[in-house]
Amino acid sequence: MNHQRLTDTRDGWNLRFRQAEQRHTGNRGELRITQHDESTGLTVESLFAAYDGISVVTWSATIRSDRRLPVESMSSLNVAVPLSAAGASVDDAEVFWADSTWAAENNWHRAPLRAMGVVDINTVVNPRVPGARFALRSRSAWSTGEHLPDGILQLNGEHPTALMWQIEHNGAWSWEIGEGVTGLQVMAGGPNCDDHQWSIVLEPGVDFTTVPASVAVCSGDWRGAVAEMTLHRRALRDERLGHNGQDRSSNTLVIYNDYMNTLFGDPTAEKEIPLIDAVGTLGVDVFCIDAGWYDSTDGDWWTSVGEWEPSTNRFGDEGLAALAERIRANGMELGLWLEPEVVGIHSPVAAALPEAAFFRRHGERVADDGRYHLDFRCPEVREHLDSTVDRLMRDLRPTFFKFDYNTVPGVGTEQDAATLGEGLLGHCRAYVDWLDSLKRRYPKLVIENCGSGAMRADYAMLQRLDLQSTSDQCDPLIYAAIAAGAPMGILPEQQGNWGYAQQHMGDEEAVLTLAAGVTGRLYLSGFVDRMDDRRLALVRSAIALHREVLETQDSSVPFWPLGLPDFTGEWLATGLLPAPGSEGRTGYMTVWRRAGEQTVTVEVPAGAEIIQVFPNPKDPCASDAKPWRVQRVDESHASLTTTSDSPSARVFALRLP
User: Which sequence ranges are marked TM in the entry (predicted)?
Assistant: First the structure.
C-alpha cells in the first residue's frame, strides 16, 4: 500500500512501551522512552531533550535488535500535528520552506499545504493512509546546498499555532509532511536508503543512533516559532561552547576579509600592505587573508592544495610571517583561510596519505574538479590536519580561521562501510568530532564556517563554529535578499553578511551594502586603501553602530517588519527585538528598497519610536543619502518614504516604550 515512508509504518505501530526515565542537568531536561517489538527483536530508545524556558524539543533515537535486522530508514523526529488543539483542519495549514543554492541562499517560500501535493482524498470513505506528501531532502554533504533542513507549518485555525523544525546534521537529511487518517504528521531525520543509499544491519552488539532534530511549537504564527528556534540555537551553541571550554567572546569581533569584490584569492605583499595599513585605521579586530596565501604556482593552486605551507613567491623575502606581524602592528589579529577536507590531485599530500584517507567508490578515489575528499574517520587524516593547524598556530599565530568547503564527495564512500551512505554519515560525524577536539585544544581560536558561502549552514556545524558566511554573492542588491532571510536559519550573532563598500560607489550603494551587516555580523571587505576620508568615515560609522548592536544582539530575536522576505521583492526588511524576558528596550530594523514604489508600510512593536541611525542624518559622510521620511500610521505601523530614485537602504533604531 502506498503511504508516507516514515510518518506511518507497521514497524512503528508494533512497538510497545517498556520504560521511561527522566533527568535534569543544568538547564537541560531529558526524557527517555524505551519501546520494543517482540516479533522482530527491535528496541527503540527515544530521547527527548529541552532547555529550560524554551518551547523546543530535540529528538533522537537509538535502535538495536537481539537478532539480525536490516534497517533502511529511521526518523529522528515524528510529530503528530495538533490540529484539534489549534481548532484547525488540514485545509487551514500553510507550509514554509527555503531553497538555497550558491549565491542565492535563504530563499523562503510559503504556500497552502494542499497546494503542495498533500491533496484531500477524503479519508472518511478511504480509511487508509494517503500517499501524498510534501517532502524535501539534501544530497551529499552540502546540507544546505539545495534546501534548508528547516521547515515551518502554520495552522490558521481558531487558535493559530506554528511548528518549526530543524535537522542538526552536516550531511544527508530528509523531511516530509504527510496526512494520515487522523491528521497531519511531520517527519525529519538523517540519511535513508531511497534518497541517500544508506542502510544498516542491526544485530547483537550493533546499534544505531539517529542524527538529532528539533521542533518548536508555539501559539501564534511563524514568527513566534522562529523566535523560539532562535533561543534554542543559542542554548545549543552555549552548551557546546561550555563543553569545549569556550564562551561567547567571539560574538563581539569585527572582521575584515580580503576576498569578496577585492583580491578574490590572489594575495601578494604589494596588494596586502596598503590594505592592511588602511584597514588598521578602521578599528576592526581581525584581518583575514583569504584563499591564495599558500599558492606558489602563480594562481594554479586549485588542484595542488593540501600542504598549507605559506607561498614562497607572493610575499617577498620576508614572507607571510612579515604580513602577519604588520597586521598585529596595526592593532589587528591575523586570520587565515583553510579548506581542511580536500587535497588536490597534484598535491604531495595525495601521495603521502594512505588509501583509507580518501573517499572511494568502484575501487577508486573520488575526485571532484581535480580534488580528492578526505575521510575524517581515518586517523592519518586527523593527524595531518592536527599537525597542519599546530604548525600554523606556532609559526603565524592566527586567532581566526575561515574553514571553507568547496568540494563535495557525492553520495558517499565504500571505504570501511557496508553502504555508501553509511560511509558519508561516518565521515560527517567524525568531522564534527574533530572540530570539537580542535576547539578544546585551542579554546580561544575563532573559526568561521563557510561552504562556497552557506552551502553547509546547519546546526551540527554552527553549534561548534563561531560565524557563518551567508553567501558568496557579489551583487549587493541580491545580497539584501540573502541577508533578510538569513535569520530564519542562522543566529543573528553568527550571521556573517558581507559589507563590501568601494570608493567608486555612490553614497546610496555604499550605504546599501554596509547596511546588510549591521544587525547581523558585519563582515567587511572592499578596497579600503582606495577610499577617501569621506568614504572611510562612512565605513567607520557602520562599524560603530554595529558595535552598539553587538552589545545586545545575543539577547535578541529576529523579526520581519514586512513579513516573510520575498527573495525577488522590491522591498525587504529584517531586524532585532529584545528576546522575551530580556531587559533591553532597543531594537533595530534594516529596510532595503530595490525598486518600485518609494513608500512602504512596516509593522513595528506598538508605540516604538523609530529613529534613523545609519547613515546618521547628522553625519556628512553620506550626504547624498538623504534621510528617509518616517510617518506614523498607527500604534504598530509606520510608512517609510525614500528620498532617492536609486536602490537604497536604511537602518533604524526602535526605542520601545
Answer: none
